[in-house]
Amino acid sequence: MRNVEIEISGKFRTPPSEFKQGDRMITCGIDVGSITTKAALAKDGEVIADKVVFTGYNARLAGENVFDEILRQSGLTRPSIDKIISTGYGRNSLDFADKAITEITCHAAGSHYLDPEVRSVIDIGGQDSKAIAVNASGSPLNFVMNDKCAAGTGRFLEVMARALEVDLDNFGEFALKAQHPSSISSLCTVFAESEVISLIAKGEQRENIIAGIHDAIAARVVTMANRVGFNPKVMMTGGVAKNSGVVRALEQKIGHKIEVSAKSQVTGAIGAAILAQRA
Predict the structure, then answer these.
(1) Exposed end of the chain (fewer CB within 10 Å): N or C?
(2) Does 155 score more than 70 pLDDT?
(3) Would you say residue 15 has pLDDT above 80?
(4) How remote is the C-alpha of 120 from its chain's centroid?
(5) How far is CA 176 from CA 186, 208, 245, in A?
(6) Roughly what angle, to the nearest 10 degrees, separates helices 154-164 and 189-201?
(7) In terms of CATH, what superfamily is 16-115+266-275?
């Protein structure tokens, strides 16, 4: 059976309200993703800490764990946190959060916090991908999202890394060494894995196969994201942003430099923490 990609698009027209800061307001954003769960603390509009844990099978427990870990790391207690906002696919599982906000809004706000000049965001997470147009105040203008097919996501890359017997953290470095990227015709996880195994059997170099995988991912994401368009600056968020091969392939496809923050993986949690500081 073929995988069918379903894209969801939408528009946001109501900008977030302005900051309403207290004397020592401390807020927490928790982003429950399919692979990792992230938390960030903000104090009076500034991010002061972040933490990442693996989600595992229990999203609520992962949220509890990352919250406890970031408090321990920061020397704080639960009563010292004024507000908690959850985001990500498991956001509604955190019954201790004051509010749940979509990751679209949180990644837009987090990207704006990291660089106020960002106008386009590409977010590739564990099981979905998104393109978001952002205005000058950090509000999402419109977006397109694929959350019905794992092709091109972090989970897809994990499967490809296992097939190639390469540590996922080294995938980007391998791709940058490629001389002739392989042609990968399918991004259905099952079919793509079969293609990769066939290429291995033919003696194709691993770096060429990996570069081909990245090119195929970039082509798919750009095709989806063109419905939103790219306005510089472009920032990439999510765990896949740490893969330099995917970033380079996307840059070549869209013709723009892509900014990647050292906090790319926790951008959604940062956005949630910052939004929690707003009235």
Answers:
(1) N
(2) yes
(3) no
(4) 13
(5) 21, 9, 6
(6) 20
(7) ATPase, nucleotide binding domain (3.30.420.40)
- In sequence order, what are the residues at sequence separation of 6 or more whose Cβ sits closer than 8 angstroms to the Cβ of residue 199? 182, 209
Residue 152 predicted with pLDDT over 70: yes
Phi, psi of 82 (to 5 degrees): -75, -35
Relative orientation angle of helices 267-275 and 103-114, to the nearest 10 degrees: 90
End-to-end CA distance of the chain: 48
Domain with CATH 3.30.420.40 in the chain: 16-115+266-275, 129-133+143-259
Tell me phi and psi for residue 252, to 5 degrees. Answer: -65, -35
Amino acid at 57: Y
Architecture of the domain made up of 129-133+143-259: 2-Layer Sandwich (3.30)
Residue 151 CA to residue 159 CA, distance in Å, equals 10
Q: What is the CA radius of gyration of the chain?
A: 19
Query: Cα dihedral sign for 217, 218, 219, 222?
Result: positive
Burial track 175-203 (b if 16+ CB lie within 10 A, e otherwise): beebeebbebeebbbeebbebbeebeeee
Q: What is the pLDDT of residues 224-254, one digit of tens each?
A: 899 998 999 999 999 999 999 999 999 999 9
pTM over 0.85: yes
DSSP for 149-198, please give it: --TTSHHHHHHHHHHHT--GGGHHHHHHT-SSPPP----SHHHHHHHHHH
